[in-house]
Amino acid sequence: MRKKRFSVEQIVAVLKQAELGLPVADLIRQVGISEQTFYRWKEQYAGLESDQVRELKQVVEENARLKRLVAELSLDKAVLQDVLSKKFPGPRS
Hints:
The protein has 93 residues and is mainly α. The chain has helices spanning 8-19, 24-31, 35-45, 50-85. Helix 1 crosses helix 3 (35-45).
């Protein structure tokens, strides 16, 4: 996976500049991004303040951690159910 070039704080700063009236064409040329990237950022981060950005980042990281945990537990459950469903030969006398 490609490493992100811009932090969320930098993205919000770029969007703030656009809100202050800097033309989008000039802004994307200065930052070195495509127009599509700018509007994707705008859709995702528009209206956020820096404290909200930090909170969003924490929530996203926590969500990813919980998803991994659920996946691991689901795998463990499937393995245990598979083991219990197999018929084992009884003790021989």
